[in-house]
Structures are given as structure tokens and as C-alpha cells.
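Q: Convert this sequence to C-alpha cells.
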Amino acid sequence: MKAQLDKSYSTLSQALASAQNELGYTINYDSTYGNTLFKDTYIKQFANAYDCRNEETKTCLSSNTRPTEYKTYTGNTLSTYRFDDGNFLLQDGTFVIIELGDNRMELTVDVNGKDNKPNRWGHDLFTFQIMDDGKLLPMGADGTRSELCDSRSLSTENGVGCTYKALNDKNYWKQLPH
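A:
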């Protein structure tokens, strides 16, 4: 999973930089980007990405429903309000979910696809935040909105902040909760 996460981070970051270059300005929450405009501009940066467009299928989520197949870092019920502003599927099977709201822009990625387990934050599901300067940072890094990554927490958002640790802690992958 570590290699898939590294690849996803690089791919998402490059696409964001490319979209900003195409538009000629920094994409961030303050750029007054609407859900559709951001998604349409961003998805164009990926070759042959499949835009789910509010459909509920085996590989897509409808923005009108909340996915039940995803869990927290520790396997509990997940708060899915971060999953409702669009999603798309990359050619390699990576599933990307967009969240725009509460003064933040986030991209969550299921590195092995929605249909493949474990479907847990911090295991195969990772969240990144688009910062004010237009850079994409792994959630849990300094300045991001969440550091929640605790093997004892019962929070419905536990694991959203694991991305930074998963990318930078050499022991992270050996210590995942079951």
C-alpha cells in the first residue's frame, strides 16, 4: 500500500499543479471554486479518468448517499460528510473523492479502489488537503485540519489524519490496527 500511496500523492499533486497552471491562478478554498468547476477542471488532468457524475455503481458513489463500506482507522463506523462533492476513478483503479466545505478543500483517495478491502482510513484510504498556497499536503501534516490517527480512538473521523504518518513514518505500516 505504501507504494500506491506514494504514487497517488505524486499523481494528485501533479494534476493540481497542472490545473492551476492551466487556469493561471492558485486553486484553494478562497478561489471561490464551485464543486462542479473544480471537479471538471481537475479531472481533465488525468488521462481516461471516469467521472462518476452522481451515479451509484459498484465503483462509484452518489453524492446523495453515504458509503457504508468505508470504516475508520480502527474499523468503526466512519463519518462520511467528507465524501459528498464528487468522485472519479483513475485508469489504474484508484478512486478519488472530493470534499469542498467548511473553509477547506480535500481529496481522499482509495489507493486500491473502492471494491477492494480493507476500505479503512489510514489503511488504503487517505486524505489530502489543498492548502491556501495551492499545495497539496497529506492530512496530519502541520497546518492541515486533522491529525486524528489513534489506535484507541472511537471517533467517526479517526484515521483522516494518518496520511502524513503513512508517508513519513517507517514503522507505520507495521503497526496498523486490525
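The chain has a mean pLDDT of 86.
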